[in-house]
Backbone:
């Protein structure tokens, strides 16, 4: 099947939101470096944050091949309204409970999205999706074990994690905000769509959380935090971008 | 006076001038796990170090990032350090061997095998 202009636009929209999500969550989670609850976890969490930046780079490179600017320019010269990340990933790291639950929700969505994309007709993206399969598997394994152990870690631990789940749930649903090209992407076999992804994600995370003893809010009772995919962001994104691009802005032409 | 550091982990420890360095209290630190890494399926696991962790599953998570991030591995073992039975260094003499028992040393057999194999190869050639 030949890609029409709308297919390519849809593909770019998909790549931008994935790459932006990964860049921003990677940057956010790296803020824990040096502050983690214990040395070993500090290293593990920082490593995963670094993995996310690497994954975003691979997607920005695909966008570059599709005619967008080079990865550094795209990553470091846009302002908040030009970012397509979900609001979930841009919020401050909060306490470790918040960051851990966000990591659990985000990484399961990413794992399923990459799993779906390993079958995409756009071959270069399928290769990227397959390349990171093992990396993302470790990330979800890390999140699962922490969620499970912290559920069983006593009253305070359970209470804080449950509270963080409640806070994060609507934000996490915001990840599945439909794009403008859902029908085209599905029809062309590029991507199965956000609605399908959300359903698969719910089928994964709800039974897991329930098995650990948590309560999961009902999807119908929660307002999804939409807007991020269309450039509508919380006030937290721009300061993050200012900090992230601080060095780049001093000398954009510098050779790294 | 409490030590106020830029590193919140130092501040959290609530150290003061009276704190004795190296003094440990129960439940203040996690136990350690010894980490064994297997490079290739079929080969033996090798000890690579240890990690602090509250349980084996988390020890595995930490061990993977501490010891296998840049090196290839196919399998990990984590074992509670406390479960490792150790010999005393004062008993190190149990490993000594007397000089008149060199025949127990298999080195010469190995070399002869290789010499014979080489001879067989070159004779056939």
Residues:
């Amino acid at each position: 099947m030949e890609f029409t202009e709308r297919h390519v636009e849809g593909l770019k929209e998909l790549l931008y939101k994935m790459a932006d999500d990964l860049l921003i969550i990677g940057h956010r989670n790296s803020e824990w470096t040096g502050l983690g609850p214990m040395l070993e976890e500090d290293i593990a969490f920082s490593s995963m944050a670094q993995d996310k930046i690497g994954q975003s780079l691979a997607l920005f490179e695909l966008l570059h091949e599709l005619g967008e600017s080079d990865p550094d320019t795209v990553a470091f010269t846009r302002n908040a309204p030009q970012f397509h990340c979900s609001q979930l990933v841009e919020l401050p790291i909060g306490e470790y409970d918040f960051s851990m639950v966000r990591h659990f929700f985000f990484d399961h969505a990413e794992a399923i999205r990459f799993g779906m994309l390993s079958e995409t007709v756009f071959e270069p993206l399928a290769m990227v999706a397959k390349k990171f399969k093992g990396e993302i598997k470790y990330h979800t394994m890390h999140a699962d074990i922490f969620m499970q152990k912290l559920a069983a870690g006593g009253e305070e631990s359970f209470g804080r994690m449950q509270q963080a789940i409640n806070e994060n749930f609507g934000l996490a649903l915001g990840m599945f905000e439909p794009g403008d090209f859902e029908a085209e992407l599905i029809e062309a076999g590029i991507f199965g769509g956000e609605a399908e992804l959300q359903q698969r994600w719910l089928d994964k995370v709800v039974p897991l959380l329930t098995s650990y003893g948590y309560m999961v809010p009902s999807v119908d009772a929660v307002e999804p935090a939409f807007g991020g995919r269309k450039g509508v962001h919380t006030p937290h994104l721009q300061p993050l971008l200012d900090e992230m691009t601080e060095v780049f802005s001093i000398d954009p032409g510098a050779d790294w | 006076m409490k030590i106020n550091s830029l590193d919140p982990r130092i501040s959290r420890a609530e150290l003061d001038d009276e704190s004795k360095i190296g003094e440990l209290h129960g439940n203040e630190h996690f136990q350690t796990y010894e980490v064994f890494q297997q490079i290739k399926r079929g080969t033996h696991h090798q000890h690579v170090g240890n990690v602090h962790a509250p349980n084996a599953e988390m020890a595995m998570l930490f061990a993977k990032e501490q010891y296998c991030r840049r090196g290839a591995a196919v399998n990990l073992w984590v074992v509670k350090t406390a479960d490792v039975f150790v010999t005393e260094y004062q008993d190190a003499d149990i490993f000594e061997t007397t000089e008149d028992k060199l025949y127990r040393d298999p080195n010469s057999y190995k070399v002869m095998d290789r010499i014979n194999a080489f001879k067989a190869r070159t004779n056939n050639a």
